[in-house]
């Protein structure tokens, strides 16, 4: 991934799965179920309404949610891109 590829869109597909699109045209689903199920700082995303409130932040460098305390919790674009590419590679194999 180019260090400059930014997220331009992020939509909820279903609870725990996002469709992420980057400015270079690459798009793919990102499954966050395992991360959410582990709990910790992501535990609040077990609530479907909270998960649906995802936003693109930092000029496309990340996505994030506001947790119940008002803290921003999220993922960097590079992390999401790696997950989406792995999923695409696994599906093609």
Descriptive terms for the model:
alpha+beta; NE0471 N-terminal domain-like; 6 strands; three-stranded antiparallel sheet; 93 residues; globular; 3 helices
Averaging pLDDT over every residue, what do you get? 92
* CATH class membership: Alpha Beta
- Give the % helix: 25-40%
Number of helices: 3
Number of domains: 1
Under the CATH scheme, the architecture is: 2-Layer Sandwich
CATH 4th-level superfamily: NE0471-like N-terminal domain
Account of the protein in words:
This protein is α+β, with helices and mostly antiparallel strands. The chain has one domain: NE0471 N-terminal domain-like, CATH 3.30.2020. It is built from 3 helices and 6 strands, in the order βββααβββα.
List the helices and strands and how they pair.
Elements: E1 7-14, E2 17-22, E3 27-31, H1 33-38, H2 48-52, E4 55-57, E5 62-66, E6 72-76, H3 77-92
Antiparallel strand pairs: 1-2, 2-3, 4-5, 5-6
């Amino acid at each position: 991934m180019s260090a400059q590829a930014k997220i331009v869109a992020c939509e909820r597909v279903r609870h725990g799965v996002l469709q992420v699109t980057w400015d270079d045209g690459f798009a793919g689903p990102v499954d966050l179920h395992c991360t959410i199920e582990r709990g910790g700082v992501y535990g609040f995303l077990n609530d479907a309404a909270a998960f649906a409130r995802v936003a693109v932040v930092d000029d496309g460098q990340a996505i994030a949610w506001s947790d119940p305390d008002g803290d921003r919790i999220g993922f960097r674009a590079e992390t999401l891109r790696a997950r989406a590419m792995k999923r695409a590679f696994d599906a093609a194999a």
